[in-house]
Amino acid sequence: MPYRLASEKSQIRLTVKLMRASFILPVLTFIVGTLAVLYAGYAFERNDKKERIANLDTIVREYSKQLELTALNSTLRIQSIIDLNSPVLPHIFNLRHAIEASLRHTMFQRVSIYTLQNVDPIDGLPILKRIYISHSPGDELPQPKTQFLESKYIRAKIKVMSNASSRPIAFAISHSEQSDVLILIWRSSQNAKEYALFTAPLHTVFATAPFDPGLSVALTDSDTDLTSKVKWTANGLVRVTSASHLPSESASESSTPNKPILIATNGSAFSTLQMKWFGEATQTLGILTWATWAAGLVIISLFSLLLRFLLDQNRKVADLVIKRTVDLESALDNATEANLAKTRFLANMSHELRTPLNLILGMLEMVEEKSYDSKVLEFIKTIRISGDHLLSMISDLLDVAQKDSQELTVKNVPIKCPMFFEEIARLIGPDCRKKGLAFSFAMSPDIPEYFRGDPARVRQVLINLLRNSIKYTVHGSIRLSVSLIKPHADSLSERITLRMSVNDTGMGIPKAKVKDIFERFLQLESTKILGQGGVGLGLSIVKDLVTRLNGNITVESDEGVGSTFTVDLDFESMSARTWSDAFMPVQVEKREIAVVSNNSLLYDQVRFYLEQGQTKILSLTKDKFESIVRESKVDTYAYYILDLNVGADATLTQIGPMRKRTILVGNEQELSALPLKLRVIDDCPLLPTPLLNAVGVKSLEIRERKDSATTLAPVMPKIEGLPQNLSILVADDDKGNRDLFEAYFASFGWQLTFTENGQEAFNHYVEVSRDHQPDIIIADLRMPIMDGLELTDRVNAFEKEKNLKHTPVILVTADALDETAKLAHEHGVTAFLTKPIRKAKIIDAILAAYLTKP
What we know:
Layout: H1 2-85, H2 96-102, E1 110-119, E2 126-135, H3 152-163, E3 169-175, E4 180-187, E5 194-201, H4 202-205, E6 215-221, E7 226-232, E8 238-243, E9 261-266, E10 273-279, H5 283-370, H6 374-403, E11 413-416, H7 419-435, E12 438-443, E13 450-453, H8 455-471, E14 477-484, E15 494-504, H9 511-514, H10 527-530, H11 538-548, E16 552-558, E17 562-573, E18 583-585, E19 591-596, H12 600-610, E20 615-620, H13 622-631, E21 639-643, E22 662-666, H14 668-671, E23 679-682, H15 688-694, E24 697-699, E25 727-731, H16 735-745, E26 751-755, H17 758-768, E27 776-780, H18 788-802, E28 809-813, H19 818-826, E29 831-834, H20 839-851
Parallel strand pairs: 12-14, 19-20, 19-21, 21-22, 22-23, 25-26, 25-27, 27-28, 28-29
Antiparallel strand pairs: 1-2, 1-5, 3-4, 4-5, 6-7, 6-10, 7-8, 9-10, 11-13, 13-17, 14-15, 15-17, 16-17, 18-24
């Protein structure tokens, strides 16, 4: 109750906070957003300006190089003409025709030759008279009004040149009302009073520059203090202005957006003139900035309104959540209790199912150890395989119920081929025979003899698929085939892929149902017609298992024709030898084996497995076989494989000396009842191992009477390291389990003490600990009076109190839940084993516990 009150108070405080936030947050968002938009606009304008100036700098550098080359080319052409003709014609005037001819190949439009007359007494500048003038075809310059040089800037430049004898060539600029011009002044080397003036309008000189309305260049003549500025207008025209000063070079730091910024200084293009390039930030940047600000403010305003709306909605949702919280908390408590009840139900279900299986499989194991009749051993093996498969199905169904098939444990243990697949086929054969279906088995010879995988999961996949085919097949046949779809590994620990296919001639699957065939609880409508039961979990479990094994499953089906389920799974090869290489004939001479049958499938199977090397498989008719029997031609064929379905039963009584060479194929159970002692092979299905053994092809491996662990057969454990006088205290309330433990340990000569509950076991432990502690305690989890966990706690506390050595406790239970195992280890249990308990498993646990004793 106090918790509920505290929760309600916190909910009220939350509501108040949400109401405040619905007003404050939109206002703060608008203010912060506005500041961010203003700063973004300023940063945008500043970055755009920097980028523009950087682009202009690149343009200037490229064009300056081009302009320099043009000026240098014009100067060199004129100089080459003058240098070539000067020795012959010492005066520039005499060179006028040569200069006029080369004018069209330079950047200039007009050439004028002046002679120095006198010095003007007023301004002190020289007076020059024109003695020659020549124009190029495209001359745009205005005509001179007099024969005397009027430009004071050019006269000042010539004055400087006359005083400096080392400057015969100089560039100059001049300004007049008509135009601004660029002039190349050339002083005669033979006559110091003669000057050639090559003239070009400034706007034509820069006409080839890259068009940019923000670019301008200032030309300054330091001798005359004249500056001409060339600027490109928005329509691409060149505008020239002159002034007696330059733009400020500190304009880059100015806050005025259109003030020119100095980009580069270049004084090498026209030698004596200095060029300064300027860039201007145009008014477009300001427009973009204002547009950015306006758009940003609109967006921020809309966002603030949206935020206000969302906060209001959030407050309403919070109110609704507060109203429902109490109901949800109550529902959560109920769900938790239901989940705990489900967990206990699963534990009880596991316990009730595993307990009888523990006795069944354990006693079968003991009978198998004591029996030496091969036929009895075969029956026991079939029962044991069925029991193991039932146990595997129980475990998987519990996993599906508890974890929705999301955390199934996958093992990786050795599997022996072909024994593993033959056991599955042998288990399904009786069901096919009972329904009158032909069942065939085929396995490619290139599969490795040993490989690693999860045999229980693979077995469950194939058995479910085979039983599904039996269920939906009324007449016809079923076929199980195993093949290698990736090349066999030449070395150990190599990944291989096996393809396992189940084919039937059943009713097939409608096209509309194929995509849903692996859904849970799905059954075809025709199941009612066939009279088959089930809950529709078989193919769903198959799909889940194949996914957990990182494999792939596909289905191909034609309604009314049949279906083929194909499973591809990866395994780890453990052997470079194939299963077929593991068999070799007793003799290698040429031999012929006759198959007496009209069943082409039987003939093809025999030929597939036996025809190799010098062994040939031949087909023999019933009449021919009976003729051989009557005439006692024993040596005609090495072996006779007789299919009793051809109706040769009467001939068996006359077979006589051919008995050792005759192999009967048919219903093994019925044929074994015949009084004749003949070798019998079951044909449902015909398996490679019994067929190969019947014709003298034996395994290279020395086989033990017990099957390998890959077929889930029990293996006698190694007990080196355990003393002969080992003392074990067993606590179990089930007499059958106590008898099973006694049978497991009878052959070892150990000292065994049995009690019916944890209290009896603890009392016995306290009593004998004065003289000799038990070496191992084996206790069942669920016992009356005192269970296994409490027994473990009491023993550990007693040892700590009396300062005794630790006694390992092995806890056995039919409760296979992970939570139970975790709880057991928290109580200090040494080993936790789930039923059914195999002899090998309990012996290994005893050995491990004894070797780890302090």
